[in-house]
């Protein structure tokens, strides 16, 4: 998924594709070079392009890493996709353009000891960056509760990393993935939580013992999910940060 932005004319750099991993026909991770002097905050996005077509992608990698890691969802041309079909044709060594400065305010706020991170599919990207940088910096004093929803279990691309972090840092990370189509044959082997992620908020807020006085809620991904999270959490006194991703190119 991409965030929709308006872009001004600026000087672009070209960066090479260093690596790509395809997880499903429509989901891949792609690593591109980080331009010299390119700095960003965990949770921000970069703007890449091909043939003058540009879109913004949140950055999975943490600021300390040497390359930019992107989680890309294919939007087919018949669905309005323009850039992602071109990205799907890229091979290692090919190039994309990148704007010189990252943007975005969907960043980690350390004022709250409890961080409730709600996502759908590619919306998990900023949270991966948060956690990597947090551990790299040796920070402490916070808890991260990651609630992630998807239609199918194979869309949890970062589940291995998040489960590992939960196992290695049980007092820091709690990860709960849920599928919204538990009866679909493609989820036949799924043994985890079921239901749309926003419908599980009350259950897990109570289970985690969260309260508005020390909890910041982040919602990233599908606009419908975000609106539901706000409808549930704002009346209870929680602050909600949001980053809307649209499944269109």
Brief rundown of the structure:
By secondary structure, the protein is of the alpha/beta class. The chain has five helices and twelve strands. The protein has helices spanning 84-87, 125-136, 159-168, 201-208, 223-233, and strands spanning 13-24, 27-33, 45-50, 53-58, 67-73, 95-98, 114-120, 143-150, 173-179, 193-194, 215-221, 239-244.
Strand content: 25-35%
What value does the Rg take, in angstroms?
18 Å
Q: What is the straight-line distance between the termini?
A: 8 Å
Judging from the principal axes of the Cα atoms, what is the shape?
A: globular
Number of strands: 12
- Structural domain count: 2
Q: Which ranges are low-confidence, i.e. pLDDT below 50, for 5 or more consecutive residues?
A: none
Total count of helical runs of at least 4 residues? 5
Mean pLDDT: 94
Fold and architecture overview:
This protein has 249 residues and is α/β, with parallel strands linked by helices. It has two domains: 13-98, Elongation Factor Tu (Ef-tu), domain 3; 114-244, Nucleotide-binding domain of ferredoxin-NADP reductase (FNR) module (Rossmann fold, 3-Layer(aba) Sandwich). The chain is built from five helices and twelve strands. The strands form two sheets. It has a six-stranded antiparallel β-sheet. A hairpin with a 2-residue loop joins strand 3 and strand 4. The N and C termini lie close together (8 Å). The model has no long low-confidence stretch (mean pLDDT 94).
């Amino acid at each position: 998924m991409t965030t929709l932005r308006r872009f001004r004319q600026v000087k672009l750099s070209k960066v090479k594709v260093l690596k790509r991993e395809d997880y499903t026909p429509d989901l891949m991770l792609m690593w591109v070079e980080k331009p010299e002097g390119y700095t960003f905050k965990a949770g921000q996005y970069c703007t890449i392009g091909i043939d003058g077509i540009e879109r913004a992608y949140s950055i999975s990698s943490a600021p300390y890493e040497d390359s930019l890691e992107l989680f890309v969802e294919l939007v087919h041309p018949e669905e309005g996709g323009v850039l992602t079909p071109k990205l799907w044709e890229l091979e290692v060594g090919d190039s994309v353009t990148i704007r010189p400065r990252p943007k975005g305010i969907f960043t980690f706020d350390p004022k709250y000891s409890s961080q409730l991170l709600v996502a759908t599919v590619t919306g998990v990207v900023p949270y991966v960056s948060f956690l990597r940088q947090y551990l790299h910096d040796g920070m402490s004093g916070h808890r991260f509760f990651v609630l992630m929803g998807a239609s199918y279990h194979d869309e949890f691309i970062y589940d291995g990393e998040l489960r590992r972090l939960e196992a290695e840092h049980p007092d820091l990370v709690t990860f709960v993935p849920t599928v919204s189509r538990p009866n679909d044959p493609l989820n036949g082997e799924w043994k985890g939580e079921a239901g749309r992620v926003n419908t599980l908020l009350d259950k897990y807020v109570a289970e985690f013992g969260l309260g508005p006085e020390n909890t910041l809620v982040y919602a990233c991904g599908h606009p419908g999910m975000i609106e539901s999270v706000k409808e549930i959490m704002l009346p209870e006194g929680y602050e909600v940060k949001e980053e809307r991703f649209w499944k269109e190119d």
